[in-house]
Amino acid sequence: MDEVLALRKNKKYAEALELLRRQAPSFLASQELAVISFWLKDKEVGLLHSAICELANKTINHQWAVTNTTWYAEKLPWEKVVTLTAKNIQPKFLPCNPSLSKAAGEGWWSILRTINWQQKGAKEYVVDPEFKGVCLTTNFLLRLDEELNVKSEVRIEDPEQVQKDGSRPVKGMEDMRIYIDQPAGESGSFSAGLCATFTLLNNQRHKDGFVRIGQVRLGEDGKTSVVTEIPSPTEARCEKNWLPFRFHDKPAFFYGYDPITVVDSAGAIVYQRYSPYNCSSFRGSAGPVPYEGGYLVVIHECGFFDGYRKYFHRFVKYDDCFGFVDISRPFFFDHLGVEFCSGMGIANDKLYLGCGIEDSEAKIVIVSPSVVDSMWMNFESCLKAYLKS
């Protein structure tokens, strides 16, 4: 393998590949194939071995594998894209990261986040001097029709609980995720059961300095009520990226991928399942939604380039017990940079994805299920076939 490595470093990729073909399959060989195939423009081979490095190879640096996957990400083929904004956005605020929930009857609910800063690579953040270094978030509740036209908008009031902490230069409800906590067909009015999670920034209640997840009920007028904190099931991490969904017909939150962990509204673990693959870099991002008898989620990961981040996403398919079924090719919405998928729903035989671009644009992307089906990697079968070859 030292000879292969030397050939690659000298950019003799074809010779390195020929040498690899004479060697027995191994995770070390797969690592080299993940790199060499990119330079030889053999994307299919590179994609497979990049996924093998990331999910199945426990002998290499995992972040290296994730960063290498970034090179294989491609733009998601979408049917339609709609840009979201609000008429009453404050001066020097930018829209981003819309969450989505299908409303009772026709239309959608969306929470549009607006922020007062600009960022570069999720590393550099600049706040206008007018705000004296304080990063502010203001959220708007949008009612959308079936064509995603904005029918109404109201500014969401910030509960008192998120305004008490004077020790941090961050204010407002960050990362709001909208959901309806009643089963379909039982919610009655258009807005009944409307709720949202958010990042709770209140260090007065948390001496460890970790943020926590809060949940709040919403009215159509933007007023908030019944604000509660969801206790962490682990007390061991900065709590972000919880995904609200219905699990066994009850409100629940998808907490993590490694292992698969579902918690209830009291923060108690109600389901856990270990995966045979390394999913420790999976974050967020949207779902889970019912899909082909199981669940579909969108995850995001990021590669690091001189300290700057480039995000990519994948679809992940699970069975009805959250057993791993398959993973999609990596993709981005607009470009490789700072992008977040922040909501997902299925309606009209289409997939609706809310996403933020560079913390400065908010979009809803509509994708055909046939596109999703074309992106599956058939990962487990391909992995077994390679190791047996």
Account of the protein in words:
The chain is of the alpha+beta class. The longest helix is centred in the first third of the chain and has 13 residues, at 27-39. The strands form 7 sheets. Strands 3, 4, 7, 8 and 9 form a 5-stranded mixed beta sheet that branches. A 4-stranded antiparallel beta sheet has the order 2-25-24-23. The chain folds into 2 domains: 2-72; 80-375, Tachylectin-2, Chain A (5 Propeller), CATH 2.115.10.20. The two termini are 18 Å apart. Helix 2 runs antiparallel to helix 3 (27-39) and helix 4 packs antiparallel against helix 5 (62-70). The protein has helices at residues 2-9, 13-21, 27-39, 43-55, 62-70, 369-375, 379-388; strands spanning 74-75, 80-84, 94-102, 108-115, 117-120, 124-127, 135-144, 150-155, 170-171, 174-180, 194-200, 212-218, 224-230, 243-247, 250-257, 260-263, 269-273, 283-291, 294-305, 308-318, 324-327, 331-332, 339-347, 350-357, 361-367. 18% of the residues lie in helices and 42% in strands.
